[in-house]
Amino acid sequence: MQFDRSETSLETLFVLVSLFLILLIGATPWWVDLYQTGSFFQTRKDLFANIASTSLNLVMVFLLIYLFTQRTKLQQTRTMELQRLSMTDHLTEIYNARFFHHRLGKEVERAKRQKEVFSLLFLDIDGFKRYNDSYGHTAGDSVLKEAGQIILRMIREGVDCGARYGGDEFSVILIDTDLEAAMEIGERIRLAFHQHRNGNISLSMGVAVFKRGDTPERLLKRADDAMYRAKRKGGNRIESESGWTYSRYDKTA
User: Which residues form the GGDEF domain (predicted)?
Assistant: First the structure.
């Protein structure tokens, strides 16, 4: 969302015209005296009257400038908040699917231009529907929030991108990260979530690495396919697009 420039321009014009009129009206006793007598001040009484009038008008000028500045700041704050809400999942307070797709497209284009590597994690909470049905939506929402916050803690703020893809699925873009490093980060996420939930619920995860000629859809499909292979093998594990299961995986962890 952006400012309406025409509206902002009209407001600026209004302020400038208002300032001009205030100064013109405030200076009226002076230029009338100058026109009629050739002198700004005829008497001491005129001097004090003009000082008082000018002071009052200066206060009005500063007040108008202050109000205009505060209104502009408020509008900017409101715009930034609307932008934040438009790209944030309201429940987990991490990025939403809309922003994720936007960011993934940008990273694919960047990787093609600069010949750099990045990885994609696709996560699903094992048995979430059963857990949600058994313990209720409030408990299910808590699980989703915990997953989102654990993801944020394990990735680099301002560099990587963690998002709720939809339902109980999450996605993570890992910048300048190869397959082995991505698997290690995924394992930290899996282990932290598993331990936090005391083993009663877990994550399955697929990992794919950007390849030359990839589109966002192809990359996402490979990560999604790897995630479903992890689930078919019993869940609570990480699978790469090539079928590699993370070597440090411990079924008891």
Answer: 116-243
